[in-house]
Amino acid sequence: MDTEMRNNLTLFHSDAKNSEEDIFGRSQLQVWFEVSLGILMCLVALTGNILVVIAIHYDQRLNTITNILVENLAFTDIFMAALHMPFWIISLRNGRWIFGHALCQLVGLTQLIFGIASLFTMTGIAFNRYFNIVRRNLYIKYFSTKKITYIIIFLTWLGPIIATTPQLYGWGKIDYHALFADCTCVWNLPDVSFIITLCVMTIFLAAAVITWCYYTIYKTVKASGERMQGHAAKSNMKSDLAHKSGEKTENKVLKTSFVVVCVYMTCWTPLSVMGFIEVFGGENPRWAHLFAYYFVFCSSLTNPFIYGVMNPQFQRTFKKMFRIRENDVQPISSRTDFKETKNTMLGSKVVLVDDMPSTSITLLPLFRDQNHNASDTGVFVNVVAEAEEQSDVPGKSFIRKNGQAWQK
Q1: Domain spans of the chain?
Q2: b/e sequence 293-309, b meaning 16+ C-beta within 10 Å
């Protein structure tokens, strides 16, 4: 009896020791490095996106059509950081899944829903900016109301649910992936139709749409700047101001477009490559899977910086929230987004955008002679800016008279 008890005790300790051993042979230093990096990413994503949501409601000037979509994007990343990433971090620590099959199915499903909803929202933001700048008439007619924006948001959530739930019914499969240290869709199934359909309809299609929208936006801004310079030249005016204005606008739009597209590709391309290598029977080292997953979660922590911090309007609100250089934050009654320049030979004025948000663009000004009727004095400039959306009245124009900005 004593011998049997000792054998059972030895077997118990052996099983406990084996359960503590890492299946990948990682050292404790490596384990805690991976876990610490995951925790840091989770906290940064959670904090950054919560600040974006708070800023939108803190300053009513940020309550615009585009920022409603930005807020939805922040919520997708908050849900990812709060409801999914903790399970991934625990699996990184233990080297295995410890929560059971049912929770694995749920966690894997939410990971796909939150990730795809984030991609679809970024696509919606790109569409919003495209119609706002390139197809202005269609934007005013169809996309300038909050009702349509809420419908778009509803579709950004409905689409991922429809795309991912077939895995629960047999088309595709969710299981724990040891190399990713997460419950996610299984890539190396005999029937690869679901994986190919999912990737094409989400990652690849979103990438194509986002790239095309921002490329078209940049071309439109560039053409607008060239028309502005050409009009100034025909009017025998000094074109330095028009050139500087067009160049400034081009650089801002180019920077925003470049950052959005490059960050998207950087975050999602490695995972797509790893997945398709598995689909076609190949193998990848664990470090490649790990870094691909880190890059995917990096999308959740970079979105607040791209869509929030890079926007001057958000910058002013963050300064006001944290009481940083309060003198630089002007009240809405005294702040204008315009800067008046010197008079031209014809007595006309050129109006430039002073603090243009990264989502804005100036169109070709209409130069008027001040010898016209009194009702025509001033310069009428159509500005595709966030200020238009704040009034909830699409297509507003701004008139510069006697140093003041008036809404038409």
Answers
A1: 25-233+248-325
A2: bbbbbbbbbbbbebbbe
Tokens of 25: 């042979």
CB of 112 closer than 8 Å to CB of 164: yes
- Span 316-366, pLDDT tens digits: 888 888 887 555 444 443 444 434 344 433 343 333 333 333 444 334 333
Burial 355-377 (b: 16+ CB within 10 A, else e): ebbbbbbbbbbebbeeeeeeeeb
| 172: amino acid identity, one letter | G
- Do 310 and 358 meet the contact criterion of CB atoms below 8 Å apart? yes
Q: Count other C-beta atoms under 10 Å from residue 252's C-beta.
A: 20
Supply the pLDDT for residue 183.
Answer: 94
What's the pLDDT tens digit per position in 84-142? 999 999 999 998 999 999 999 999 999 999 999 999 999 999 998 899 888 989 898 88
pLDDT of residue 254: 65
**What is the distance between the alpha carbons of residues 76 and 157, in angstroms, rounded to a whole number?**
9
Choose the most confident range, by mean pLDDT, from 39-43, 63-67, 392-396: 39-43
Question: 25-233+248-325, what's its fold?
Answer: Rhopdopsin 7-helix transmembrane proteins (1.20.1070)
Burial group, residue 29, by CB count within 10 angstroms (0-12, 13-18, 19+): exposed
pLDDT at site 337: 42
Q: Tell me the H-state helices in 235-390.
A: 240-279, 286-304, 312-321, 386-390
Helical (H) or strand (E) element with 401 = strand 398-401
- Position 339: which residue type? K
Q: What is the pLDDT of residues 76-86, one digit of tens each?
A: 999 999 999 99
Calculate Rg over the CA atoms of the chain: 27
For the entire predicted model, the pTM comes to 0.73
CB atoms within 10 A of CB 200: 11
Q: 117-128 burial, b if ≥16 CB within 10 A, otherwise e? A: bbbbbbbbbbbb
Characterize 51-81 residue by residue with b for buried, 16 or more Cβ atoms within 10 angstroms of its Cβ, and e for exposed: bbbebbeebebbbbbbbbbbbbbbbbbbbbb
